[in-house]
């Protein structure tokens, strides 16, 4: 996964490159072959859940649920003849997770009934755009120091206000074990907290998740 995947970060509350894993499933024109692929993908998901302590009930979203331009796993579910909903995946994964998987298959999808009357269309609710915000103000004395937990992306901030701050440009890598001193913290619109190092003239920022705070 990529750093700075904003929608994914919102779902997981952190940088998905560090804390998330995805499972892919192939699908085919042959329904039974697609079902075998789907079944194998569910078993892989079960292994990952057990290995990393993931709760599939609330920590296993479909890609379409966190990214508007994606439809998976709806495509493989459709190829299997199943209902195009994550609940089908959840049921299979939970069965295998509980060790009581059966050969029974999910109910196949049925055409939705045609509406008998026009539904009242509600106006979309306008949401206020999210902006960045300062967590810790600039200080001449470091707020704290720490060591980099693993090779971390060193970022440069762009933009001139909290409405358009971005930390997407990588300018280098900080090696594992390097000591850093943090003088300011800003949370971007996706919820990531970025930490400024050294002085105001230095535009180097690092993700807070990568720092093991010492003091």
UniProtKB/TrEMBL annotation:
<feature type="region of interest" description="Disordered">
    <location>
        <begin position="104"/>
        <end position="135"/>
    </location>
</feature>
<protein>
    <recommendedName>
        <fullName>SH3b T C-terminal domain-containing protein</fullName>
    </recommendedName>
</protein>
<dbReference type="GO" id="GO:0009253">
    <property type="term" value="P:peptidoglycan catabolic process"/>
</dbReference>
<dbReference type="GO" id="GO:0008745">
    <property type="term" value="F:N-acetylmuramoyl-L-alanine amidase activity"/>
</dbReference>
<dbReference type="InterPro" id="IPR057505">
    <property type="entry name" value="SH3b_T_C"/>
</dbReference>
<feature type="domain" description="SH3b T C-terminal">
    <location>
        <begin position="137"/>
        <end position="212"/>
    </location>
</feature>
<dbReference type="InterPro" id="IPR036505">
    <property type="entry name" value="Amidase/PGRP_sf"/>
</dbReference>
<dbReference type="Pfam" id="PF24246">
    <property type="entry name" value="SH3b_T"/>
</dbReference>
<feature type="compositionally biased region" description="Basic residues">
    <location>
        <begin position="124"/>
        <end position="135"/>
    </location>
</feature>
